[in-house]
Specification:
Elements lengths: L1 E2 L5 E2 L9 H19 L4 H18 L8 H13 L5 H19 L5 H9 L30 H20 L5 H17 L3 H5 L6 E2 L12 E7 L8 E6 L5 H11 L1 H4 L16 H14 L9 H13 L4 H8 L4 H7 L4 H26 L1
Antiparallel strand pairs: 1-2, 3-4, 4-5
Length: 367
């Protein structure tokens, strides 16, 4: 027996199996991998799902054709209460395992017939609406997550620059990675980039903006690894430069930093020539936040939140901000904006002043 490239079972012979249970599971996983490849899902996504199924197999110590809803409840109760996994993580795990159960229980793929023949039973769907987490709202981020205030952001950037100068002055190794990470923090904020968008930038991704010649050759950046929809390639977009200090940061890095780390076109190479990992940048980010005693709720994504928030506070058109962020809907951009109380007060004051002025002018006209 084997599986074709679409994940369907076919018979190749009547050779008896030495370990039929183990081999059947491996064939199921191979078939599911093929089925997901047909859907054009990313290899990393597929492998993560395969590992999750293997983890569930190890936890239950049962094979898919003997799984029950009770095993589902026990597994996820442990993840939630003992390991403190978040709602979104739990739901993602459950969705992956539900898809696997749907695959092996679908008669079109033939696993029901194989299991009936070999084990006298068949796999069934054990993930239902009543025993899995619900997705009931668009925004599931932790309530502690927030944007930087402008003062906090300036202190953070200044501290990053100070660390580069301190390491360089002490003649110790590490000033170049510290310099690289400082530039990455600034560009993540300058263009409102996700980490994966940031790490894939290359020196050839910058271009002139004919409507903003003062930025020179750094008038815009082409983002080629934007967030993809399911089964689709990465979404591309162009982000316009809006801060006058951004070109200087990029130009300085290309002149004194990037050539000393790599002779290729990757903008932010690691010390070993590969792309920078998120853990590497996150460790430095957290260390700087600790040094500055910044309150909880700040993470790498806070730089992107801050970009949207500060543009809105400074009076930029919400539609422009939406396009810069790469969002299809304004409601998504609204989830990123964490405007300050001062901004709300100013907006309210402007509205009240306009209302009072209109009322007074109307009264003068009436008289």
């Amino acid at each position: 027996m084997g599986v074709d490239k679409s994940g369907r079972v076919y018979v190749v012979g009547a050779v008896p199996l030495l370990h039929p249970e183990v081999q059947t599971v491996q064939e199921m996983l191979e078939g599911w991998r093929n089925q997901q490849l047909c859907r054009n899902l990313a290899h990393d996504t597929i492998e993560d799902r395969i590992r999750l199924v293997e983890r569930f197999l190890a936890y239950t110590n049962e094979f898919p054709w003997t799984w029950t809803p009770a095993m589902v409840e026990e597994f996820f109760s442990d993840l939630r209460s003992v390991k403190r996994r978040r709602q979104s993580t739990i739901r993602g795990y459950q969705n992956a395992l539900r898809l696997f159960c749907s695959y092996v229980s679908d008669p079109d793929y033939g696993w029901d017939r194989v299991c009936e023949q070999r084990f006298g039973t068949h796999p069934a769907q054990v993930f239902f609406e009543w025993n899995t987490a619900m997705h009931v709202q668009d925004n599931e981020q932790a309530p502690t997550k927030r944007a930087f205030t402008k003062r906090e952001l300036q202190d953070f950037f200044d501290h990053a620059d100070d660390r580069v100068a301190l390491i360089a002055a002490s003649a110790r190794k590490g000033w170049l990675p510290a310099y690289r990470d400082s530039v990455m923090f600034k560009l993540a904020y300058s263009y409102g980039l996700r980490f994966n968008e940031l790490r894939h930038l290359q020196t050839v991704d910058f271009a002139r903006n004919p409507h903003a010649r003062e930025f020179g050759r750094y008038g815009l950046v082409h983002v080629r690894y934007g967030k993809a929809k399911k089964g689709s390639p990465h979404k591309r977009r162009s982000v316009l430069t809006v801060f006058d200090w951004t070109p200087e940061v990029i130009g300085d890095w290309l002149a004194y930093g990037q050539p000393n780390m790599d002779d290729g076109i990757d903008l932010f190479p690691s010390e070993r020539g590969a792309l920078v990992s998120e853990d590497t940048l996150l460790r430095r980010f957290r260390r700087y936040c600790t040094d500055l005693e910044l309150s909880a709720g700040l993470d790498l994504h806070s730089l992107r939140r801050s970009y949207a928030t500060h543009l809105i506070e400074d009076g930029w058109d919400p539609m422009f901000v939406q396009h810069q962020m790469g969002h299809e809907h304004a409601s998504t951009t609204a989830l990123y904006t964490c405007v300050s109380n001062d901004f709300r007060t100013r907006a309210l004051r402007r509205a009240l002043d306009a209302t009072i002025a209109d009322a007074l002018s109307w009264g003068e006209e009436s008289s």
